[in-house]
């Protein structure tokens, strides 16, 4: 018993030696020595933080899930497998890990780590940032398909998908890129982690949180019953990164791995508006020249947009800096510095101001440095917004050639829904009617018929 | 009849339509259930947030009533019952919310499964049709998309623009400009609401000058201190052993006794009385005054000024601030000091703060503390308890590695505090006796004296208890007993109350010479340029060179008694005697104000 | 088909562009990771409150993402004076020095007061009831030895990427600390 107690005290003593802050405060009331009763002083318990190896387990689970998802998408072509993997991700990364650690927030940690030398990025966070991106560079958005709990949750609630008009899809499609820029911009100074602050699903995984975000999460889910994955498509900043990586991916998801018969059965199979119809045919005369002029115009417009954006971003830097607690406090302090302070500070704001009064010099200097950094970052952020808008306009003006029905490289979440709509798939799995291949139009004929 | 029907007949399979109806019914029920639970949870949440037991107005009202009727036992019972009820309710709502979440999740899961089944049953294979307008539609969609992006871009730009222009910030994004907004040492000092350090250094704003070392590197002393060459002399209107301050064309000191305590201001050019203000009706100051021995009096503490206000402190614990033109600003009674010889520690200012070393009683009384007050309001900015008893030394402010420290003396500790936050920086155990000499900071060392027993030099760059490591040197012979030492960084002088003047090497503490001045010395000496100025309790004013050999350059005898230390500013020397304030030096001065 | 070689070549060109972009993206990602790698540490961090900077503003009770805050009061018993009139336990000017609700400072009855020897009482915290409101911490720091202080309890904390309380903390007291040394305890020196 005694031995046990001594053992139990060890971590505490060790803890005290290692990180007790040297305090010179003089006790007003001398602690008693309990000579009479020999009373033993209890010690405060210090429940340990989550073990380090569990963080590595998270990385291992992430890597395994990514591999499994890719295998389900490319080898098994199994919607069912992805569905169960999604459920597992919701359970593990969502409800068990409470939505933290998560890849969506990781770009902010990297940004902070790059610009703030006092912050070291934990390797697990780096892994959560890098692994899905590396996979996306080769195999597309396997992460979104069934590993990301946010995506899986939205996928789960999708009951009756409706198509979003293309113009709305493209217009709102700007938002993830702008969100990404803003989040990274503000994270470099440690001002605010926008992605985490405005994450609609983490409060749901935690079964509680800020009321506004809980309601936003519920709203996203209700919307998600009819609009497929609204957060992934119109907000997710990490999705924007994955989208860019998936656009240049080595392999891509195809409705059919064999040959497209252009039966059009998959036309409406994608609930996320990522299915692309064949595009070809000769444009009417004059049309091509017009398109080329338009394209040239947008290419010239791009630097103009970026410069305008940079100017606006610089202007925005001032108010955005207020999101930094130090800057906000410094501004509040400067606003009232000439007024006599209240004798007793009570509210948190008054207490913070009393702290500012202790050493206004260093607070204001530090705040000004942060503000300068945010203003400079604002230029870059603005230029990025200009680049996104201009780039999107250019990409919409480029004439494309597509012979088959195929999912958009960037927009496809690899959810495997479209596979089930393809008659070739049934043949491949041997579940379709044996006569199907003969009943269908032969590939060569089909192509010939359309060309 | 086909085979399938025959097989199906004995066990009626529900038709897809029937099955769909069941699932639909389940989905609708689950949806309604979820909505009801959701709404209930919103209400529970709002109720929970407003049911914090500690904010219940009824409970607060009852507690307020109990203060008026402290013996009402029924009321106590009522409070206890209400408190229990409120707490139970609070934690009940908390658990209700927790269980509600699970109900909601369950409801949502049933809804999703049922709705999925309904959809599965109703799913019709798509029937693709040839769309001859596909190409045109694609072009149209592209055009619309471009417009949408342009529209989205315009909206974003407008929002950014509105945000950028809708806000005004007082904070510049340049650290140097920002620093000037709040700096006390820049010419543009506004925020700190005090004179700049340079301005204060050119004057004599506290006991033994700006930093309390009694050393003015750039000044010079008049050739003679004979009564006939005095620029002026002005009778002291109220008694006190405190030293004068000089700021611009004003000389300040305090005076008074058990009946009345005042701040007095003289015109530095003529010696005429500018104003005198009594410190009266201080909130919380008891009518019963402490017993103060005659040798100390009520006004032993020297006042201090930050160039905007003058602060005075008296042996009954009253502290008061006046504007430079004599307007009372604020007054506080800190506590009546427990001090057998009467309180004598002087005030010190740093920027617009007043530093108060309030040591009293015995260490075990735990009454001693160090405070920083806001000069504008008198509000306490920080307050630190000190593990010491009464002392009579005045703290000095030393700038070490760009940071200002407050150095305090009291048996047995020399303790240093960060002036900004009040955090203790280091302490050295070296003092003994009854600490009257104040410390000085010279040549990078803190010089402290234990009366008649030890003179020691400490390095001020430690952290924590550095008694064993940061003592540079100490000597036992030639330590002062009442007066404070003085040094130009190279040579160190100490003078005992019997008049024995000793000169040491500031580095190493080697004694160079000593000389008996044969006069009773109570006032601390000062170094002005390369001259040492000493005053006696019998009216002697002695000037010696700061050098490795003793020489007496001049000695004058004034009809007065000097207990206060001299003030030196703008080429003039101000001496406060028990009878007169004397002014020597140049006639016309360009005042820094 | 054969008379339309253009799409074919466009596809190859596009393929080439794509391959090039992928290599560039991979190189960029690798560079970024290498750069981050120099500023990484194997070990994770957790949030903690520096008790020396805490201003006892009360926001810990209301700003945590958890329904019941992960911040709790912790007692450094070795610093405690074991006072009969504990200014952490009792309201200012208590009616009587007993455990009646009318005298208690704690809104949730989370502090237990037990007699040790005359005149000393021991005060311990029931964490299931403590909501981290810092009322007792304020009383103890203002008038007592300061042995009560707030800490994030890591059996409850979900370790958000940015702690929601740290964003509003009046004292700027929230810091990231190594996960294997997750407490900043007050200790008698």
Number of strands of chain A: 3
Quaternary state reads heterotrimer
SS elements, strand count of chain C = 7
Largest sheet of chain C: 2 strands, antiparallel
Strand order of the largest sheet of chain A: 2-3
Helix content of chain A: 55-70%
Strands in their spatial order, largest beta sheet of chain C = 2-7
Order of helices and strands of chain A: HHHHEHHHHHHHHHHEHHHHEHHH
User: What percentage of amino acids of chain A are in beta strands?
Assistant: under 5%
Helix content of chain C: 25-40%
Taking the alpha carbons of the first and last residues of chain A, their distance comes to 87 Å
Which structural class is indicated by helix and strand composition of chain C? Answer: alpha+beta
Spans where pLDDT lies below 50 across 5 or more residues of chain C = 1-7
Mean pLDDT metric of chain A: 85
Mean pLDDT of chain C: 89
Specify the structural class of chain A: mainly alpha
Shape of chain C: elongated
Secondary-structure topology with pairs:
The complex is a heterotrimer of chains A (451), B (593) and C (189).
Chain A: H1 2-19, H2 52-76, H3 79-96, H4 106-115, E1 121-122, H5 123-139, H6 142-147, H7 149-157, H8 166-172, H9 174-187, H10 194-197, H11 202-205, H12 211-224, H13 230-234, H14 237-247, E2 275-276, H15 287-321, H16 325-336, H17 348-358, H18 360-395, E3 406-407, H19 423-429, H20 436-439, H21 443-450
Helix pairs in contact in A: 2-3, 2-5, 3-7, 4-5, 4-9, 5-14, 7-12, 9-14, 9-18, 15-18, 16-17, 16-18
Chain B: H1 3-8, H2 16-49, H3 57-68, H4 73-122, H5 134-165, H6 175-182, H7 197-202, E1 215-216, E2 232-235, E3 245-247, E4 250-256, E5 261-267, E6 273-278, E7 304-305, E8 309-313, E9 318-323, E10 328-333, E11 348-350, E12 353-358, E13 369-374, E14 380-385, E15 396-400, E16 403-410, E17 413-418, E18 424-429, E19 440-442, E20 445-450, E21 454-458, E22 464-465, E23 471-475, E24 486-487, E25 491-495, E26 500-505, E27 511-516, E28 526-528, E29 531-535, E30 540-545, E31 554-557, E32 567-569, E33 572-576, E34 580-585
Parallel strand pairs in B: 1-28, 18-22
Antiparallel strand pairs in B: 2-34, 3-4, 4-5, 5-6, 7-8, 8-9, 9-10, 11-12, 12-13, 13-14, 15-16, 16-17, 17-18, 19-20, 20-21, 21-23, 24-25, 25-26, 26-27, 28-29, 29-30, 30-31, 32-33, 33-34
Chain C: H1 5-38, E1 40-41, E2 45-49, H2 59-63, E3 71-75, E4 111-117, E5 120-125, H3 135-143, E6 148-152, E7 174-178
Antiparallel strand pairs in C: 2-7, 3-6, 4-5
């Amino acid at each position: 018993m005694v031995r046990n107690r001594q053992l139990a005290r060890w971590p505490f003593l060790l803890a005290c030696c290692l990180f007790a802050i040297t305090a010179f405060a003089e006790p007003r009331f001398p602690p008693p020595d309990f000579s009479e009763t020999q009373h033993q002083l209890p010690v405060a318990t210090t429940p340990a933080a989550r073990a380090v190896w569990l963080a590595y387990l998270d990385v291992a689970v992430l890597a395994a899930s990514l591999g499994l998802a890719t295998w389900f998408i490319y080898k098994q072509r199994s919607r069912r497998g992805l569905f169960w993997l999604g459920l597992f991700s919701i359970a593990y990364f969502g409800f068990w890990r409470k939505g933290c650690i998560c890849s969506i927030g990781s770009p902010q940690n990297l940004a902070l780590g790059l610009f703030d030398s006092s912050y070291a990025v934990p390797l697990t966070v780096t892994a959560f940032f890098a692994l899905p991106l590396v996979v996306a560079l080769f195999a597309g958005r396997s992460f979104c398909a069934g590993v990301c709990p946010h995506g899986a949750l939205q996928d789960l609630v999708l009951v009756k998908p409706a198509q979003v008009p293309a113009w709305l899809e493209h217009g709102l499609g700007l938002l993830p890129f702008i969100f990404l820029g803003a989040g990274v911009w503000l994270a470099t100074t440690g001002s605010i982690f926008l992605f985490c602050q405005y994450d609609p699903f983490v409060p749901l995984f935690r079964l509680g949180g800020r009321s506004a975000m809980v309601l936003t999460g519920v709203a996203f889910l209700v919307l998600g019953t009819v609009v497929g994955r609204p957060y992934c498509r119109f907000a997710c900043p990490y999705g924007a990164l994955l989208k860019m990586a998936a656009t240049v991916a080595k392999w891509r998801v195809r409705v059919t791995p064999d040959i497209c018969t252009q039966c059009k059965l998959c036309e409406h199979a994608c609930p996320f508006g990522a299915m692309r119809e064949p595009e070809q045919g000769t444009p009417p005369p004059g049309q091509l020249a017009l398109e080329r002029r338009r394209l040239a115009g947008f290419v010239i417009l791009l630097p103009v947009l970026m410069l305008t954006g940079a100017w606006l971003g610089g202007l925005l830097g001032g108010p955005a800096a207020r999101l930094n607690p130090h800057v906000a406090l410094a501004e509040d302090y400067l606003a009232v510095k000439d007024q006599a302070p209240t004798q007793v500070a009570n509210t948190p704001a008054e207490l913070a101001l009393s702290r500012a009064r202790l050493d206004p010099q260093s607070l204001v200097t530090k705040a000004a440095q942060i503000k300068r950094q945010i203003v400079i970052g604002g230029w870059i952020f603005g230029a990025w917004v200009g680049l996104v808008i201009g780039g999107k306009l250019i990409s919409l003006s480029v004439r494309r050639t597509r012979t088959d029905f195929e999912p958009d490289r960037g927009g496809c979440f690899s959810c495997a829904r479209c596979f089930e709509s393809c008659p070739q798939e049934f043949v491949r799995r041997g579940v379709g009617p044996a006569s199907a291949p003969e009943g269908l139009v032969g590939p060569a004929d089909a192509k010939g018929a359309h060309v | 009849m086909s085979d399938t029907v025959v097989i199906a007949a004995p066990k009626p399979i529900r038709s897809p339509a029937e099955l769909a109806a069941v699932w639909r019914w389940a989905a609708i029920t689950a949806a309604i259930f979820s909505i009801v639970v959701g709404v209930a949870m919103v209400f529970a949440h709002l109720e929970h947030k407003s049911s914090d037991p500690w904010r219940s107005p009824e409970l607060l009202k009852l507690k307020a009533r109990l203060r008026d009727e402290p013996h009402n036992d029924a009321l106590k019972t009522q409070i206890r019952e209400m408190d229990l009820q409120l707490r139970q309710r609070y934690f009940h709502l908390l658990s209700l919310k927790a269980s509600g979440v699970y109900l909601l999740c369950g409801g949502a899961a049933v809804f999703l499964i049922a709705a999925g089944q309904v959809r599965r049953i109703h799913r019709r294979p798509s029937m693709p049709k040839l769309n001859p307008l596909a190409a045109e539609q694609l072009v149209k969609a592209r055009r619309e998309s471009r417009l949408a992006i342009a529209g989205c871009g315009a909206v974003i730009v407008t929002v950014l623009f509105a945000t950028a222009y809708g806000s005004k910030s007082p904070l510049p994004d340049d650290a140097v400009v920002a620093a000037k907004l709040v700096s006390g040492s820049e010419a543009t000092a506004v925020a700190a609401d005090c004179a700049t350090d340079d301005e204060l250094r050119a004057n004599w704003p506290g006991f033994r000058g700006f930093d309390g070392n009694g050393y003015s590197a750039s000044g010079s002393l008049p050739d003679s201190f004979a009564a006939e060459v005095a620029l002026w002399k002005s009778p002291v209107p109220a008694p006190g052993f405190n030293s004068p301050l000089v700021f611009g064309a004003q000389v300040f000191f305090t005076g008074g006794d058990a009946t009345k305590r005042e701040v007095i201001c003289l015109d530095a050019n003529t010696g005429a009385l500018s104003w005198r203000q009594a410190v009266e009706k201080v909130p919380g100051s008891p009518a019963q005054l402490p017993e103060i021995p005659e040798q100390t009096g009520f006004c032993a503490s020297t006042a201090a000024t930050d160039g905007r206000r003058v602060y005075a402190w008296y042996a009954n614990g009253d502290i008061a601030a006046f504007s430079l033109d004599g307007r009372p600003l604020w007054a506080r009674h800190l506590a009546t000091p427990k001090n057998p010889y009467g309180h004598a520690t002087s005030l010190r200012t740093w920027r617009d703060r007043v530093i108060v070393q309030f040591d009293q009683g015995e260490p075990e009384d735990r009454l001693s503390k160090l405070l920083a007050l806001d000069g504008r309001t008198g509000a306490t900015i920080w307050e630190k308890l000190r593990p010491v008893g009464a002392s009579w030394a005045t703290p000095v402010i030393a700038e070490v590695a760009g940071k200002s420290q407050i150095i305090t003396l009291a048996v047995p500790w020399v303790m240093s505090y960060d002036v900004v936050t009040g955090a203790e920086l280091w302490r050295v155990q070296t003092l003994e006796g009854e600490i009257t000499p104040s410390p000085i900071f010279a040549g990078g060392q803190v010089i402290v004296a234990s009366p008649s027993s030890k003179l020691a030099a400490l390095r001020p760059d430690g952290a924590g208890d550095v008694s064993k490591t940061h003592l540079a040197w100490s000597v036992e012979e030639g330590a002062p007993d009442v007066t404070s030492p003085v040094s130009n960084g190279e040579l160190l002088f100490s003078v005992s109350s019997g008049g024995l003047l000793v000169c040491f090497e500031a580095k190493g503490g080697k004694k160079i010479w000593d000389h008996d001045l044969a006069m009773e010395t109570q006032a601390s000496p000062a170094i002005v340029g390369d001259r040492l100025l000493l005053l006696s309790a019998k009216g002697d004013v002695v000037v010696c060179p700061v050098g490795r050999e003793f020489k007496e350059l001049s000695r004058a005898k004034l009809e007065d008694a000097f207990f206060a230390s001299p003030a030196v500013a703008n080429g003039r020397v101000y001496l406060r005697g028990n009878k007169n304030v004397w002014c020597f030096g140049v006639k016309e001065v360009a005042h820094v104000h | 088909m054969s008379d339309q070689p253009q799409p074919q070549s466009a596809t190859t060109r596009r393929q080439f562009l794509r391959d090039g972009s992928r290599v560039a993206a991979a190189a960029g990602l690798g560079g970024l990771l290498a750069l981050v790698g120099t500023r990484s540490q194997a070990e994770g961090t957790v949030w903690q409150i520096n008790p020396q900077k805490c201003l006892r503003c009360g926001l810990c009770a209301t700003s945590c993402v958890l329904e019941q805050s992960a911040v709790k009061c912790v007692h450094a018993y070795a610093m405690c004076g074991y006072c009969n009139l504990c200014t952490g336990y009792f309201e200012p000017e208590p009616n009587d020095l007993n455990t009646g609700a009318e005298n208690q400072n704690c809104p949730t009855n989370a502090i237990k007061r037990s007699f040790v020897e005359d005149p000393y009482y021991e005060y311990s915290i029931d964490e299931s009831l403590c909501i981290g409101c810092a009322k007792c911490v304020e009383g103890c720091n203002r008038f007592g030895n300061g042995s009560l202080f707030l800490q994030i309890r890591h059996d409850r904390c979900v370790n958000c990427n940015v702690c929601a309380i740290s964003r509003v903390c009046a004292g700027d007291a929230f810091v990231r600390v190594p996960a294997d040394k997750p407490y900043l305890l007050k200790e008698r020196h």
